[in-house]
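Example complex used in Figure S2.
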Amino acid sequence: MTLLLVQALNGVQLGLTLFLIAAGLTLVFGVMDFINLAHGVQYMVGAYLAVSFYDASGSFLLALVGASLATGALGLLLEALVFRRLMGRGHLDQVLATFGLILTIGELVRLIWGTSPLQLPVPRLLSGAVPLMSGMGYPVYRIMLIVVGLAVAGLMALVIGRTKIGMQLRAGASNAAMVNALGVDIHRMFRLVFGVGAMLAGFAGVLAAPLVSVEAGMSDNLLILAFVVIVVGGVGSVRGAFIAAILVGLVDTLGRSLVTALALALLPPMAAGHVGPALASMLIYLFMAAVLAVRPAGLFGVRA
Amino acid sequence: MAEVLHVEGLSKTFGALWVTREVSLTLAAGEVHAVIGPNGAGKTTLIHQISGVVLPDRGRISLRGRDITRARPEARARAGLARSFQITSVLPEFSVLENVALSVQAREGRAMRPWGRAAADREANARGMAALERMAMADRARRLAGTLSHGEKRQLELAMAIAADPVALLLDEPLAGAGPEEVPRLIELLRGMKGGAAILLVEHDMEAVFALADRITVLAEGRVIASGQPDAVRADEAVRAAYLGEDF
Amino acid sequence: MKGWRLPLAMLLVFAAVPLLPLGRDSGYVMLLGARIMVFATAAVSLDLILGAGGLVSFGHAAPLLLGAYAVAALDKAGVDGALPVLALALALAGIYALLTGAVALRTRGVNFIMITLAFAQMVYFATGSIPDYGGTDGYPLGERTRLFGLKVLHDGLPFYLSALVVLVASYLVCRALLATPFGRSLVALRQNEQRARAMGIDPLRVRLGAMVVASLIASLAGVLLANESDFISPAYGAWQRSAELMVMVLLGGAGSLSGAVLGAGVVVLLEEGLGRFTQHWPLIFGPVLVLAALGLRGGLAGMWARRG
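Predicted assembly (860 residues):
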């Protein structure tokens, strides 16, 4: 039971990290109709910057704020240098350019910070564990991540549901032509979405850094998971991204143990040892295929 | 006259809005049946339902006695239902001849064939050229369709339709967007198509409608308010009321 | 001769490489040339669906990976005959394309890109979880594949010529297919799906057919790749490899087939050539891709077409 609870909490925490990465990206995909493969590097850059800021200042909070703002600035810089020029140029050019950015920035990171993995310590204040049932504990830091993730999600819901820019974003997600008709400054909106999206991804990178090792490939698989979240939730829908992120997080952690247990129960041990892990790592993608087979536009998608 | 297309009790709602309400109509071999009505009467949605782009909520559509109510657009096309679009719709990167030839091949069920050069299909080329000649476009055969003028694209669409030798032909405002100097020419071409495939014609240009139609059905707010010979429809009070304020 | 100059020029270059008097470097140059041709084969097949068909698949490394694992599976079973290897590779890739295509083709745009990526990730993780074939560590190939006992895929000239034959055959098959009514229908669906359907063209059948053909050809590249490196690893099917194949097609100019060969050559040569000067080669290659996307409309093949 406790193990299940721990798995569920881990799933929610993974989901919220994915949401922070996917929230900005789904708007870039949906409202701007722009394919940005390089969004994951913001997550990685955020983590690396946090390590540097922490080494310089010794303060986790300062590292968090500084690295988030810096990745936001990086997002704006990339927007001005590259993305802006690729608006409305078709998905293929965007894929080519943003893949080039992945290579470039990945190598820059290796050049600056070296190839060996770095560590960011868990802030002392949050280093304890909360006791759960039967003597097991759950790290305070992970609980803090869940709280912060939920807070950001709530804030985004407010911005998107209650403000003018939020209304424009929602209109844009369902009908891009309408944004123009509404007389919205599309370039300003593009900058805003990129800047905030990059900042959120960097923010997620800083928060995740104490739990993982900070290295050049750290964002590669997360980026793919963020894509899954976006597509399952429905491209352009932040609410969809939130729900899909939690689902994907849960499927990855709970489903993994469930499938392994099922395989052990149903199959001879040898076969179970093979099938269990294989199925477990494919689970998220099976989940995505199942969702899209039934709802080609995703859970909250407005456009197929 | 033999009936080729039969539409019965067709209904469609978008949310609370009835766009098609219990519409029934028939199309007999060789006739031109015009569907007219004020803007928003549901004419284009009707064409979309008959051609399979939109599925109706209720009702039945049959082509030569065969139920096609839920068939996909491409299946209807292969069964002999051709259409044109309100906004010109051609294959811009293909030559004019390639456009019409592919139309023939698709109608004959050869478009899936993964062997033989498409350009060497004599029958498709011959039928395509014949259609282009009837639409006065033979001299444009080698041009890329994307480089044609708007009126020429309209002609090409008509040529693609007749090249398929369809049973019934749905024309969704074939004169829309044509310049004043192009309209008489297009009407003349449409008149030349009479007596071939049965034509269901949706058109705003009343001059064209009365010049071409054997029968007229009037739609308003999704339902049929009058149907019959052109003269009878012209005199109908309900029609006059529906068109109040519009030039009729 | 229209449309044949670029492919013939490239064929001449590929055919001339083994004849060049390069002395001690000739082995290395042939290896590089063979590698280019292997990736060019996969890129050409991707161009069939991406360039001609407008189906932006972000998972084309998956059939390549399946082809490579067909070699591993039969090697493990002690079989090195080309016929069974090819049969298994083609069967796996064909079934994969049929199953995933049927689901993926229900979606459009970004969703299609992402679902093809997701399916490829499934293959990537699945192959990495088979202990018999080394799991994520990969599988060292015992015996290279032989055709009727002949060492056609062994080092040097035999492998080079086999890769050339496969590339030329793949190119000709794709090119011929595009000239058939089926190919016309595929291109018509990209240009204007609504119009193509109203003509009677079945989008699902045509696109699924094209995806199967592309997948089959890519699996051949996978068989070659496994033999070239004597090693089979899930890494051949990582998403970055799928992206790289797209880059080859886009850099060369989508839709022209020969452009994909050109793109494969440029990508492999840049990676390899820059890699000899500096380990930080992505710092040059990355910006090249960005600049190409910003400035190079129609890819290298487009430049060729506009030359003079």
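Chain B has two domains: 1-80+166-248, 91-165. The mean pLDDT of chain B is 91.
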